[in-house]
Amino acid sequence: MKFSVDTHAHTIASTHAYSTVHDYFSVAKSKGIKLFAITDHGPDMADAPHFWHFVNMCVLPRIVDGVGMLRGIEANIKNELGEIDFYGNYLQQLDIVLAGFHEPVFPPSTQEIHTQALINCIESGHVDIITHPGNPKYPIDIMRVAKVAAQHNVALEINNSSFLTSRNGSLPNCTAIANAVKNAGGLLVMGSDSHVAFSLGGFDKSIEVIEAVDFPVERLLNRSPEALLCFLASRGHTTLDEYNVLID
């Protein structure tokens, strides 16, 4: 199956990434990707863009040459309370909100603290997708997190980059997460976590995990633009009308 949606990509606004918005549109078009999200790191990361970067995303076009781009963020989970580094009415201006653990903001702690932080973040209602929850540096109670995510209509990510260039040792955790989400009736999404445009839509290793647990494709948000947009609408996003042209 061809997956034409990618929810996780970084631009040169996060200075450890290497591509521009223009680069991503070009690569998306060449690969047949219909919808992707720009999700630069939240402002508490050392080399992240300023808070105003996300406030000003309204200047970006949502559709270019038939390809859709969601205005988003990969926020940082800051503490055990599940707080993130983007807040208030500004969250409502974004099309998609991702959040995850990053060592410079939330140093690894205990399984219980990681688990409680994720649960609180999910229950806050501010975050649509939890990024790379299989990171072995942040052990969690996978079953508890999967159940709470399913109850609150929050998707957990299978992060392709975790198997290639970062977060070594993620495969067993990600397989367990995929299986737990399947059993809990929840949602998964595959994210390339691209830090250069060439890897946009790269899901090869994530697909292996999905297939290994026989995860139902109807609960995989990458299956179509319509699937992701319906999910975001169900999460309360009211910024999505321009993307209707992508729905077959």
Automatic annotation (TrEMBL):
Binds 3 Zn(2+) ions per subunit. Pfam families: PHP. Its cofactor is Zn(2+). Zn(2+) 2 binds at residues 16, 41, 195. Zn(2+) 1 binds at residues 8, 10, 74, 193. Zn(2+) 3 binds at residues 74, 102, 132. Keywords: Hydrolase, Metal-binding, Zinc. Residues 5-79 form the Polymerase/histidinol phosphatase N-terminal domain. Belongs to the PHP family. PANTHER family: PHOSPHATASE YCDX-RELATED. HAMAP family: YcdX_phosphat. This is Phosphatase. It comes from Shewanella litoralis.
